[in-house]
Amino acid sequence: MKMNHHYSELKESYLFVEINRRVTEYQKAHPGCDIIRMGIGDVTRPLAKSVVEAMTAAVQEMGTTEGFHGYGPEQGYDFLRQAIQSYYAGRGVQLEASEIFVSDGAKSDLANILGLFDADNTVLVPDPVYPTYVDDNITDGRKVIYAPTSRENDFLAMPDPAVHADIIYICSPNNPTGAAYDRAQLKQWVDYALANDAVILYDAAYECFVSEEGLARSIFEVEGARRCAIEICSFSKIAGFTGTRCGYTVVPHQLQREGLELNKLWLRRQTTKFNGVPYIVQRGAAAIFTPEGMAEIQANLDYYRRNAKVLAQALDQAGIWYCGGHNSPYIWMRCPGGMDSWTFFGWLLEKANVVGTPGVGFGPCGEGYFRLTAFGDAEKTKEAARRIQEAVRSLEG
Ligand code: PLP
Fold it and tell me: Fewer CB atoms inside 10 A, N or C side of the chain?
């Protein structure tokens, strides 16, 4: 027996596990303290009424002989693929339904898609970014290189012609920094990928937060992207599906490498290794795209946007540098008093009983930064903002 020893190359524990461990330890030592958690990027608003109604109707259907659904198509039911197709068409992006693969969320597909690529490829990952990209590739034995970001480049890495990569991750709007690419910037990445015969894995999990003109919501808004990009998306943030589990991946027919059409490979992979997303869940997801569903989820997104504003205002008043919060549910703040990320984590937990995410957990370039989420309850967010402001003031005094 030979084990996959690449697992031993992973950092000891996944970021959020470590945060939980430290918070639990603090809670044990300080029973009764009122901790506000703004760490993990989970949503809090309930599912939209239209989604619940559609899922309830689907449950009823499943209880009848005529309406029962067993195994469904691995790539998703046509009704959902067509709804996603219309969603893109509404933004001027024409997709074929056969280019859309319904998934059980972005996280699985971000890892599974790598099965199409040899382990002997170099992977370019922005720093800082959603940590699973790195872990997914390390466990496969791929070489990972980083594109550093900082305040100087607005936390938006741009391609370096001197560096070669075969697989490129782009997360826009970015988790954790909230930075989002405009179309001209993405065009540079597309040109770089085409020049390097590389494939871009474009994580659009937060596209619904983009509100500024000129910023891209899909990489397929950019000319040439169909020949070099796969887009991975999710209903988790747009419609609160973090626990319901549904998303989709777009693999264009034009995307070919070494004479192989990636869409065909992915279809083969899915039909072999995946048995599809539950009918009930897909009915719920399709309801997002009805006019009522869209209005309801927009109300939830606005709720989070207001939270982001509350946090941003508190940081403005405390004189702390931050970015994000406009086209993203995340606020990426500079740790005050020259503290590093984990020191500030401990300090804020103790002084304000507020939990955030240490920026360094998303990559070395995140050192000295801290992520706050706007996905929380509005009242708790207000209270957290007040406590953060007060704690930072005490630092000055
Ligand atoms: N991609 C990014 C950038 C994320 O931040 C997350 C979750 O927080 C995911 C993907 C996972 O999404 P899903 O819930 O669809 O698996």
Answer: N
